[in-house]
Amino acid sequence: MAARRAAVAAEPAASAPVSDPAGNKAAARVLRLLSRFADEIDSYGVSELSRETGMTKNMVHRALTTLARHGYVVRDETGTRYQLGPGVLRLATAGLPELDLARLCDPYMRRLRDLSGESVTLTVPSGRSAVTIGGVRGRGLIAHRVTVGRITPLHISAASRAILAAFPDDAIARYLEQPLQRLTRRTLVTPGAIWAEVHAVRARGYATVMGDQWQGTSGIAFAVSAQGEYPHGSIGVCGPAERLNADRLNGVLPNIFEIAGEINHRTNLYPSEYFTSAK
Amino acid sequence: MSNGTNTSVDQIFDALDLLAVEGSLGVVELARARGLPTSTAHRLLVTLHDAGFAQRDSTGSRYELGIRAHELVAALFRRHPLTVAALPIVRQLVTDLGHTAVLGTRVGWHQVRMVGFEGWHEVHGASRIGQAELLYESGGGRAILAYLPAAEIEAYVHWESQQRRRSATRTREIHTTLAGVRAGRYGSYPLGADGHGIEVALPIRAGDRAIAAISVCTPTAALQADGRPRRAELRRIARAINELESSLRQQPELSRDPFGHLDTDQLAAALTLPPT
User: Fold this and answer.
1) Which of A79, A125, A197, B143 could form a disulfide with B203 if both were Cys (CB 3.0 to 4.6 A apart)?
2) In this complex, which of B2, B70, B79 lies closest to A42 when CB atoms are compared?
């Protein structure tokens, strides 16, 4: 049930009664087909598209004809397959609003919040720190604060450590050359301890909250991966330790990973430079 | 660009085109523009919204282009391998100069801004990523046009004169300007009508022709007294160009054009929105 609710939450439902249900469905199908072309694959054949979308070959063929008429797809050089067409460039006419990482991640962060009940934050690297750029507050009366603009050193907090562990080794070594700040008695401040944690995060696939920033909270963070050597940032799920105890956390971890997989499938298409300013 | 059939699917794409042109669209506007009942207009926008092609804007009552639209454009840019190679080079150029810089790729008779970063000076140009301009109507486009084979320049002039009903004067003007680009070695175009600066561009060449250009939005304050760009700026842009041209020589597949097999005039038509 939670999974279904989560799936609905990702795509806001249509609200008005439809006056042309068949046409509406056809339109939705064509748009769904067009969306396939946003992936890594350069060109598609009719059979492949039919297999991947569950549409019949006839439906696929009709949809492709419509898309071709509007220039959104064209035949490729071989003449037998279809690829994105120049019509897609019309979508950028008014100057496309910048692809916003926070906006892209927002529906997935809501699903994570709904599934865990806890606050979810999106953090990106900036120099020697990590900055929170988005998030959703947890559902309970008591929840972890989401502070957009909060800056944390890269070795402190689960969100930061998830990012640091996703950096290439030489970047981590450069980071560790300078003195490391301590916030609580649990903050890791020696290169040895931090390298050990980096390897643990890489092996596990996520960083855990360990009281190195605040007391009394628990949670995890996973890297939001990019094309290339650096990550876009990380997403963290964090809440009060008495509520988000080990059992509860282990219970939701598989679902968290599923959603993480979906996010990374999309963010992997962009290099990390894509979302940052050139400073 | 539907042929007039009024199916839901054609209506969806008409609505999408209007949304792309306007930037922001409300139900009533769409209904009026396309002569539809508001319930139909609402249904079209909701369908686009559900598929991720439209999203509510910050006011909550209007729609703007959604993430799926952006992802498709980004996917198309990725199919031009040069853009992937250019990303770190353009980024470094912006870091060094402080001005907005853009890689524009030739698509038919247009230049499309595919990679760009905004400058870090307080006052800087907008990168306008995704925008397409006729080759003659941008600095980067002029840099490209000037370095196409003569026959293609003729074909462009001919096409432009047909589309825009241009005169012989215009044709002469184009040829003079392009000769100037080749002599001065850079293309330029005013930034906005109010003279706030110029776009300075150099072509990226592969084989016998330019395939793209790097342009830098240079505000007036950064120009010389005679209105020309500083030598240091041109040299820095040339360095970025050399890096890319060198990569192109080593990896010719970087110049791959996913639209290379399409007719140029047809391409140009696809980029031109029908009148709303």
Assistant:
1) B143
2) B79
| Interval A118-152: pLDDT, tens | 999 999 999 899 999 999 999 888 888 899 999 99
Q: Which has the closest alpha carbon to B27: B50, B17, B37?
A: B37
Report the residue from A31, A89, A277 with minimal CB separation from B73: A89
d(CA A141, CA A139): 7
C-beta of residue B131 within 8 angstroms of C-beta of residue A93: yes
Cα-based distances in Å from B97 to A272, B185, B218, B221, B229:
21, 19, 10, 13, 12
Question: Are the CB atoms for B134 and B189 separated by under 8 Å?
Answer: no
Q: Which one, of A264, A257, A21, A100, lies nearest residue B55 by Cα?
A: A100
Q: Which of A23, A91, A269 sits opposite B7 (nearest CB)?
A: A23
Q: Which of residues 23-62 of B touch A (CB under 8 A)?
A: 23, 39-40, 42-44, 46-53, 55
Q: Mean pLDDT for each consecutive 10-residue tract of chain B (276 residues)? A: 62 92 92 94 95 87 89 90 92 93 96 90 81 93 97 94 81 94 92 83 95 95 92 96 96 94 91 64
The CA distance from A226 to B12, in Å, is 32
For residues B156 and B109, is the Cβ–Cβ distance under 8 A? yes
- Please tell me the pTM assigned to this model: 0.79
The encoded tokens of residue A255 equal 């679902």
ipTM, 2 decimals? 0.87
Give the separation between CA A216 and CA A210, rounded to whole angstroms.
Answer: 9
Q: How far apart are CA B86 and CA A260, in angstroms?
A: 29
